[in-house]
Amino acid sequence: MIYLYIVVVFIMAVFMGRIIIPYIFLIAFRKRLFDSIDVRKKHSGIIPRLGGVVFFPIQCYLLILSFFCVYKFGLASLCSNVYVVLPQFLLLICGLILLFTIGIADDLIGVNYRWKFVTQVIAASLFPISNLWINDLYGLLGVTTLPAWFGMPLTVFIVVFIINAVNLMDGIDGLCSGMIAIGCLFLGSLFIYNNAWLHAFLAFITTGILLPFFYYNVFGRSKGKRRIFMGDTGSLTLGLSISFLVISYAMSDTYIKPFSSDAIIVAFATLVVPMFDVIRVIFVRIKSHKSPFLPDRNHIHHKLMRLGISHHVTMILILLMVSFFCLLNIISVKYMDSNIVFLLDLSIWIIFNLCLDKIEEVKLIKMNKQKI
């Protein structure tokens, strides 16, 4: 019965997204709510950027409906400890409301980055308040149990970092939505395996919402008024949602899942690409004596496109990379220590980027020779 209900809420999320997004088109074109065009953006037509407006309302509606049905039909016994888990979901919704509000304001009129950062910190702080925080590294870097005075601030920092990493990956069509959909599908399957049904609901609801948006974002036509962008409303709320799922799986307790020594490596496998990419970009900016907070075109999707790879192929390559790290980590932890798996992830990422840099350098040399 519980498996059937997960399938039902997934289909409902897809259906609701498919129904509501066309109305977002209608409102955007009637009120002239389009994404701005500047030198850092590739599109040239008028395209709405309010696609992310549909994510949180559908998430909230179907989550509440799911919780009701769990109790109404006697499925509560399949949940771990609802009195511990439910407050975490309630404060997650509070955090999503904050980011949803600041995201809409930014998409419509623009918001100073300081206010966005403060809002992100407040939303992230709700996690440890609800007793959801990274309390164990499972031996990663030689660290096991973390005290609350360190683990709670660390959690806030990591959540804010993830939110911004997800936001920065929203640079080309389908990349952010595809990446989060893969991550939620991966984590949702793990939660089902561990009988953490409430978290599985959130993961599959989020995946279902993203499918119709992905279609309109990637395959929609600007001239036919059927193409839409996510905007900060979508990327901020998706960043908090995936953070909640990752930290829930990584947290060492008996309420969500049984103890597993590979939990943190497996959970964060879904975010290897965006997190490593942001760290690399910040390192390059600091090395070049630039502010780490100033925008540039040095992210992984920018590097691939500079090599002449199309938007869609770039998106597919990065999504394959996300899937690769998810599968690599969940298989590798069965045979290797978590530290070795982490070093393997890091080595693969560094080698991949060094190869891209070398190819780009060779391409520039050839172009300069042709000019001469």
Helix content: 55-70%
Q: Averaged pLDDT, please?
A: 87
Q: State the end-to-end CA separation.
A: 70 Å
Q: Give the biggest sheet.
A: none
Oligomer: single chain
The helix/strand class is mainly alpha
Estimated share of beta-strand residues:
under 5%
Q: How many beta-strand elements? A: 0
Order of helices and strands: HHHHHHHHHHHHH
Number of separate helices: 13
Poorly predicted runs of 5 or more residues = none
Shape: globular
Radius of gyration: 21 Å
Describe, in plain words, how this protein is organized in 3D.
The chain has helices at 2-31, 55-72, 82-108, 113-129, 148-168, 175-193, 197-219, 231-250, 263-267, 272-287, 300-306, 311-332, 338-371. It is mainly α and 372 residues long. Helix 6 packs antiparallel against helix 7. The protein is globular, with a radius of gyration of 21 Å.
How would the blueprint of this fold be written?
Elements: H1 2-31, H2 55-72, H3 82-108, H4 113-129, H5 148-168, H6 175-193, H7 197-219, H8 231-250, H9 263-267, H10 272-287, H11 300-306, H12 311-332, H13 338-371
Helix pairs in contact: 1-2, 1-7, 2-7, 3-4, 3-8, 4-5, 5-8, 5-10, 6-7, 6-8, 6-12, 7-8, 11-12, 11-13
Compact summary:
This protein has about 375 residues and is mostly helical.
Main traits of this protein?
372 residues; 0% strand
